[in-house]
Write a structure and sequence with these properties.
six-stranded mixed sheet; 13 strands; D-Maltodextrin-Binding Protein, domain 2; 20% strand; five-stranded mixed sheet; alpha/beta
């Protein structure tokens, strides 16, 4: 399901020593993420980070585009992915389904911020829809079944106002955060859901939508920041190098100061950089899963 073939990671026996595990570390690390648009944009956006990781790990790092979060999870399960950018829900799903991975960092837009964001419910500016209750009977776009801000939190919110996704609306899976927003903007959906950054900065910044053409009629509670995870199959020493690179050096200030980039290229997308996260930070997502009992949660911890 990945756009291009991934290089397999070495597996490890449960009782092997740290030195034996290090000997089995791959010569090439595979980093997987979901692009906002075409994969070339993904390559450009992460280039300073990839260069940093190669320097810190002394290994070649290849970034690959995945079609959706399910592809990310299955790539990790098959031990073909070493580092992955998840959504909060896809991380919880991966962990609950037995994938051996550890969250190490999440992106923030500004230095000193806590990682987290909101989901938006959006309509066109001239729509008669004023609130979530009025989504009933409408064609509603969602991002991805494994998306936290583009599906899980919206579904929970709709349930609270008495709307059943399977009966009271026409549910459309647009295929991504950007696709959900663009479908509403083009009138292909009457309403939709997506992460705040996609509505406020990413798509307007690219000229894909005009500010003011869409209206926000609902905002979620704060959602934990989308985590980067590292495979537990890697040796402890290599995992530490990757973790330290993300949480200590993968930020706009360090990348610029050490010559990895110049200007706006030092921002990873619209973000300043990464800050540390832990598994417990995603307990609120597990709580929403328990409320919705959504099949996509697949037995959250």
């Amino acid at each position: 399901m990945l756009v291009t073939a991934l290089t397999a990671c070495g597996s490890s026996a449960a009782k092997e020593s740290a030195s034996e595990k290090a000997d089995k570390d791959p010569d090439q690390l595979v980093f997987v993420a979901i692009p906002d648009e075409e994969s070339t944009t993904l390559q450009q956006r992460f280039k300073p980070l990839i260069d940093l990781l190669e320097k810190e790990t002394e290994k070649k790092v290849v970034i690959q585009a995945a079609t959706d979060y399910a592809a990310v999870i299955e790539g990790q399960r098959a031990r073909k992915v070493d580092i992955a950018q998840h959504g909060p829900l896809s991380y919880v799903v991966a962990r609950a389904s037995g994938v051996k991975l550890t969250p190490i960092g999440a992106q923030v837009t500004k230095r000193g911020e806590d990682p987290g964001y909101q989901s938006y419910g959006i309509v066109k500016k001239d729509s008669a829809i004023k609130n979530l209750e009025e989504f009933a009977g409408q064609k509603v776009c969602f991002a991805d079944p494994n998306s936290t801000s583009g599906y899980l939190y919206p579904k929970a919110a709709l349930r609270k106002v008495g709307i059943d996704n399977t009966k009271d609306i026409t549910e459309v899976m647009a295929g991504g955060q950007d696709a959900s927003v663009l479908s509403v903007d083009k009138g292909q959906c009457d309403a939709g859901f997506a992460a705040e950054a996609m509505v406020d900065t990413l798509l307007p910044g690219k000229g894909s939508i005009k500010k003011g053409d869409l209206r926000v009629v609902w905002k979620s509670d704060m959602i934990p920041g989308s985590p980067v995870t590292v495979s537990d199959d890697l040796s402890p020493a290599l995992r530490k190098k990757i973790t330290d690179a993300f949480v200590e050096k993968a930020n706009e200030d360090y990348l610029r100061a050490h010559g990895f980039c110049t200007g706006d290229a030092c921002r990873i997308g619209e973000n300043w950089g990464y800050v540390p996260v832990a598994d417990a930070d995603f307990d609120s997502v597990r709580d929403v899963c328990r409320v919705t009992r959504d099949k996509q949660c697949k037995n959250p911890e």
